[in-house]
């Protein structure tokens, strides 16, 4: 019986991760950050519009954090009673329960699509 030798050369892990947009701040995280901001919009409490208009992704983009930049955002997040519709407390948690599959699908597409 003959010996069979196989040699496999792999790219470094960080190169593979970068090519697929999975690196820190990469296209996949930037997509997720943007989708969270967009998809949360109909869930955010609305009075004057300042809270709804205040989200921003942290700098540099793609850090995986979205911050609502008004002083009362934290209190609204935990205590807002809502208006009977989508808008109200814990808007991220409720959006995620409704739209996580869409975010995951978009992230998969971002992995497949190079910039």
Give a quick precis of the structure.
This protein has 4 helices and 2 strands.
The share of residues in helices is 40-55%
* β-sheet strand percentage: 5-15%
Number of strands: 2
| Biggest sheet architecture | 2 strands, antiparallel
- Averaged pLDDT: 91
What class do helices, strands and sheet pairing give? mainly alpha
- End-to-end Cα distance, whole Å, is 49 Å
Total domain modules: 1
Order of helices and strands: HHEEHH
Continuous helix count: 4
Cα Rg: 20 Å
Low-confidence blocks of residues: none
Overall geometric form: elongated
| Major sheet strand order | 1-2
Descriptors:
115 residues, mainly alpha, two-stranded antiparallel ribbon, 4 helices, 2 strands, 5% strand
Can you describe this structure?
It contains four helices and two strands; from the N terminus they run H-H-E-E-H-H. The chain is mainly alpha-helical and 115 residues long. It has one domain (13-112). The protein has a two-stranded antiparallel ribbon. Strand 1 (55-57) and strand 2 form a beta hairpin. Helix 2 (27-40) runs antiparallel to helix 4. The model has no long low-confidence stretch (mean pLDDT 91).
């Amino acid at each position: 019986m003959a010996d069979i030798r196989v040699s496999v050369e792999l790219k470094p892990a960080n190169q593979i991760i970068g090519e697929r947009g999975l690196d820190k701040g990469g296209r996949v995280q930037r997509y997720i950050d943007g989708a969270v901001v967009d998809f949360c919009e109909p869930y955010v409490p609305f009075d004057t519009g300042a809270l709804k208009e205040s989200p921003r992704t942290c700098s540099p983009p793609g850090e995986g954090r979205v911050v609502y930049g008004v002083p009362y955002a934290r209190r609204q997040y935990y205590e807002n009673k809502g208006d009977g519709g989508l808008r109200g407390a814990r808007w991220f948690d409720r959006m995620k329960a409704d739209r996580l599959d869409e975010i995951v699908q978009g992230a998969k597409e971002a992995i497949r699509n190079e910039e």
